[in-house]
Specification:
15 helices, globular, alpha+beta, about 600 residues, eight-stranded antiparallel β-sheet, eleven-stranded mixed β-sheet
């Protein structure tokens, strides 16, 4: 019987999970001396590297002494909360990471609630103790209070504490000790985390908790074996969530070690493996022995709270920049995403229109950003929250919002959120001139708030939110205050006309950018929309004048990336997303169509 420990690393976004996993990998001697390893090695996807966040949970395995430790690195962002919940069912204990200054954040509460409900044993790691503003003792008290508030058991409350600076590979059991390496953390894992239950002699039982895809072998299920032994080439049964049983053969069995995967011939109870051979495999399915099938409970996957409509790009510039532009291509790509991304839903709602529902704006923009990098061109509408009827009452999703802001901006923030139907729950001074304010707010009120918040706090505020529950609908919420500057002509933008438009508001385009009728080129300084002509050049005359050739000075345009633009748009606007550009446009391009549409609404 192998000696195995299964742990998940959970924490709020940016508290250092992936950096800690790096340290565990390098200090366990998993990599050979000649292997070159990147920083944050587990964040393999290009977007993860750029943003510095984990989007998909990933697993790795290390050897320490004679033990194999399976580690799963989980996302810290609230939009990917569904991944965390599934992963926790697969492990026997967790490393809960908390920043030594920020302390308990909304996502920390979310993951702790799931962990306690599932009865997992935690080891608390207070990370970033090398920060000048670190207060490890206060943070330990906060974690203890949180555990008590969440009804933790006696065993969970007696959690061991490790103080660490994961980036520098330092860990110690007491703040008074000298800096040591991760040995004390490895020993704590072996000592505190229970061995996996289950017996290699029982009939086979494994459950899939995440999916992968390979062009050669098709869908891959990553699963934990709870009982029995699984061998390559075995004939097994796949028990689906709806009770259907599918017979099949395991064509491939894959084991993990460090960052590499290798083919193995068999694995036994307690281990985490990947397998291929079933095209219909889904998260929560059980792999069972055909002669004695005992399926495990299917998993509950959290409901989506936001939806966005993807459509075929129909602007005058359609098809000039993207490789994949037809509705069939877009549909195939979205369906491929649904195969591995369980927290999302897809439905076709019309000719070339697809409604994608997910857990939040970030999840949807990550999908859109990946698609445009792959050469797709499409349109996206404004995100809408999913409203559902519960016992005859119209309900909408509410979020728990935590804001850390410099003291002088608290009044502005509270006033702004009040108009968006937020209810303040607490306000605590954080020291160093910062205040932490907590709110409960309808998810609709958060759409488009981030950009305004960063402007109000001069870029110094930090906001985090996580899903609370569905509550009765709270009426209309204030949205964007300013109108749009809309181009009335198609062509190439001229510096001369943009110079004259600067007084009207903030521009989004530069000279020589392509524009078309109905495209939004900037934000108006008033609340109404204004049609303008950005392509008018200077009229040439044969009369010389003293001020003829004064240099034109343009204010740099506002950089509208995919996320900012998606938050900025209103219901009658769309984003045109291509591999090269993100343009904002009106749904109806001509003035006459817009007027006709307004009349029909009234």
């Amino acid at each position: 019987m192998q000696k195995i420990r299964n742990i998940a690393v959970i924490a709020h976004v940016d508290h250092g999970k992936t950096t800690l996993v790096d340290g565990l990998l390098s200090q366990s001697g998993t990599f050979s001396s000649h292997e070159q390893v990147d920083e944050r090695a587990m964040d393999s996807n290009a977007l993860e590297k750029e943003r510095g966040i984990t989007i998909l949970s990933k697993n790795t395995a290390i050897r320490y002494k004679d033990h194999k430790i399976n580690i799963i690195d989980t996302p810290g962002h609230a939009d990917f909360g569904g991944e965390v919940e599934r992963v926790l069912k697969m492990v026997d204990g967790v490393l809960l990471l908390v920043d030594a200054y920020e302390g308990v954040m909304p996502q920390t509460k979310f993951v702790v609630k799931k962990m306690i409900a599932l009865g997992k044993k935690p080891i608390v790691v207070i990370n970033k103790i090398d920060k000048p503003s670190a207060e490890p003792d206060r943070v330990v008290d906060e974690v203890f209070d949180l555990f008590v508030a969440m009804d933790a058991t006696e065993d969970q409350l007696e959690f061991p504490i490790v103080y660490a600076a994961a980036r520098d590979g330092i860990a110690k059991m007491d703040m008074g000790d000298e800096d040591g390496n991760f040995e004390c953390l490895f020993e704590a894992i072996l000592r505190e985390i229970p061995e996996p239950e289950g017996d290699a002699g029982n009939p086979a039982q494994a459950q899939v908790f995440t999916l992968d895809y390979d062009n050669y072998v098709g869908k891959i299920g990553i699963a934990r074996i709870f009982n029995g032994t699984i061998k390559k080439g075995d004939n097994v049964m796949l028990a689906k969530a709806d009770g259907e049983m599918v017979k099949g053969r395991l064509s491939k069995l894959i084991g993990f070690h460090g960052l590499s995967r290798m083919e193995i011939n068999e694995a036994e109870a307690g281990d985490i493996i990947a397998f291929a051979g079933f095209e219909t495999v889904d998260v929560g399915d059980s792999v069972v022995d055909p002669s004695n099938p005992m399926p495990l409970d299917p998993m509950h996957i959290e409901e989506p709270t936001l939806s966005v409509v993807f459509s075929v790009n129909d602007s005058p510039l359609a098809g000039t920049e993207g490789k994949h532009v037809t509705s069939n291509k877009i549909k195939d790509r979205l369906e491929a995403e649904m195969q591995t991304n369980v927290a999302m839903r897809l439905e076709t709602i019309g000719e070339g229109k697809f409604k994608v529902s997910g857990r939040g704006e970030l999840q949807i923009t990550v999908l859109a950003e990946n698609m445009r990098r792959e050469g797709y061109e499409f349109g996206i509408g404004r995100p809408e929250v999913i409203v559902k009827e519960i016992e005859g009452v119209k309900c909408e999703p509410f979020e728990h919002l935590v804001i850390d802001t410099p003291d002088e901006f608290t009044g502005t923030i509270i006033e702004r959120l009040g108009k968006r139907k937020a209810e303040m729950k607490s306000m605590v001074p954080m020291g160093e001139g910062y205040t932490r304010i907590e709110f409960e707010i309808p998810a609709r009120g958060l759409i488009g708030f981030r950009g305004m918040f960063l402007t109000d706090t001069k870029g110094e505020g930090v906001m985090n939110h996580s899903f609370l529950e569905f509550r009765p609908y709270s009426g209309t919420v204030e949205s964007r205050q300013y109108g749009a500057l809309i181009s009335m002509e198609g062509g190439t933008a001229m510096a001369y006309s943009l110079f004259n438009l600067q007084d009207r508001g903030v521009l989004f385009i530069e000279p020589q950018d392509k524009v078309y009728e109905g495209m939004i080129i900037g934000e108006h300084s008033r609340s109404n929309d204004l049609t303008v002509n950005p392509i008018k050049g200077k009229a040439q005359s044969n009369v010389r004048s003293s001020g003829a050739d004064e240099a034109i000075k343009l204010v740099p345009p506002r950089d509208m990336n995919l996320e900012k633009a998606l938050e900025w748009i209103e219901d009658d606007e769309l984003l045109e997303v291509t591999p090269e550009n993100v343009r904002i446009r009106k749904r109806y391009l001509t003035e006459n169509e817009r007027k006709r549409n307004d009349r029909s609404k009234k």
